[in-house]
Amino acid sequence: MSTNIAEISAKSGQKVEIRGWCHNLRSSGKIAFLQLRDGTGRIQGVAVKNEVGEQVWALIQKLTIESSVIVRGLVRTDERAPSGFELTIEEVEPVQIAEEYPIGKKEHGPDFLLNNRHLWLRSERQASIMRVRDTIEFAFRDFMRQRGFVLADSPIFTPSACEGTTDLFEVKYFDDKAYLSQSGQLYQEATSAALGKTYCFGPTFRSEKSKTRRHLTEFWMLEAEASYMNWEENIQLQEDLVVFTVQQVLAQHECELTELGRDLTHLKNTIAGNFPRVSYTEAIERLQKLGSDVKAGEDLGGDDETILTKEFDRPVFIHHYPSAIKAFYMEPDPTDSTYALCNDLLAPEGYGEIIGGSQRVSDLSLLKQRISEHKLPEEAFGWYMDLRRYGSVPHAGFGIGLERTVAWICGLEHVRETIPFPRLLNRINP
Ligand code: 4AD
Ligand code: MG
What we know:
Helix content: 25-40%
Structural class: alpha+beta
Number of helices: 13
Shape: elongated
Radius of gyration: 26 Å
CATH class of the largest domain: Alpha Beta
Number of domains: 2
CATH superfamily of the largest domain: Bira Bifunctional Protein, Domain 2
Bound molecules: 4-amino-1,4-dioxobutan-2-aminium adenosine-5'-monophosphate, magnesium ion
CATH topology of the largest domain: BirA Bifunctional Protein, domain 2
C-alpha cells in the first residue's frame, strides 16, 4: 500500500511507498536528492549510490523534472527538512520519464504561465491556492446547511437576463436561443418560496469586456435567498458566512497561507466580526475627501473600492446605493425610494466587492414598473411575476463571488490564479 506524503508524520521509522512525481532533482556522483510530490505534499528523498546499489542508481540517473515515479524507502525525522521528514530511498520505479519540462526556475510572464496552466497547477503555490479554494467552497456549503438553507441548484441555460442585458452570453438552443446564466437569483426566489431558505452554488457567466484583476467571464457564485428575511438580517447573514469561511481557512491552512506569504492581520480582524456598515452617501463623501472624483449618484469604480477599503481593517458593508444604478429587482427604501435596500460587501486591503445583496421588490405593480423601466421583456418574466401573485412575501438574498473571495483570502493580485482554468476576456485556453 502506498502512503500519502501528507500522512508521512505517522510513518516515521517505517518503510513506505510513495507514488508521485519528481518535482526537482539534484545529484552528485555519489548522492542524489529527489524532491518528491504526490499532490498531498512534498518530501525530499535521498539516495546514496553505495547504499542503493548500481541498478537503483542507474534508474535515478534517468529521472527528469516531473517524471512520474514510485519510490520506496525509510521515513526519517529530520529537523532541517521543511516537512520535518526525509525519505532514505531504497527502491525507485520510474513510471514515465518526462520530456524537458517547460516551466523552469526562471521567471515566466503571466501569459506563458497561463498558456501552460495545465502544468502550472503543479507548482506548490498554485496547489496551495487550490487547496484553500476547496476549503472555501466547503465552508460556504457547510455554513448554509448549518443555517438551514436547502441547496437548490439554479439552471445554467436561461431565457432572460438577471443582471442587465449587456453582458449576456448567447447560445444556440435548438431552433431558438438561450443565455448562459448571469445569476441564479431569480430561480432562488422561486425555490425559497417553496422551501423557505435556499441557495445555489455554481458557475456564472458574464461577457463583460472588463480586463481587470477582478473579472472572469466564467466564475462561481453562491447565491442565498430567504423568505421573510429583510435587508438588515441579510447583511448579518453575509457577515456570519464570511467570518465562518475565514475561520475555516485560518484553522486549516496555516501552511498554505505561509507558502503564499499571506499577511494574516486583516484575516484575523475579520473573524472578530463587527464589519463596519457605511451608507452609500457617506461612502461618496469619504471618497471625495480621499481625492476621488466620484460624484453622488454614480456607481463606485474599482479604484474607489480600493481606496475605500484601505480605510478599514476588515471587510466593510456599503448599503443603500441609489436605485437608479442598481438592478431592477431591488426593493426601494420605504422612507426614501431613491435608495435601494441593498448592500455590497467590500473586502479589505484594496480587494473591493465580493458580495452583492438586497431585499427584493415584493409588490407586483412595482415589479412591473421596474421591469419596464429597465427595458426588459415582460413576457420572459411571467413566472417571476407569479411569485408576486401567489403569496408574495418580503424576501432578501445575496451572491458571493468565489474567485474574488479566494483572491482576497489568499492575498493574490489577480483572480486568474484562483480557479483551475480561468476564462478571461481574451483567454479560453487551455
Ligand atoms: O453583484 P452581482 O452582480 O450580484 C448578483 O449577481 C446578484 N444577483 C446576487 C444575488 O443577490 N443573488 O454579483 C455578485 C458577486 C460579486 O460581488 C462578485 O463577487 C462576483 O459575484 N462577480 C464576479 N466575479 C468574478 N468575475 C466577474 N466578472 C464577476 N461579476 C460578479
Ligand atoms: Mg455587484
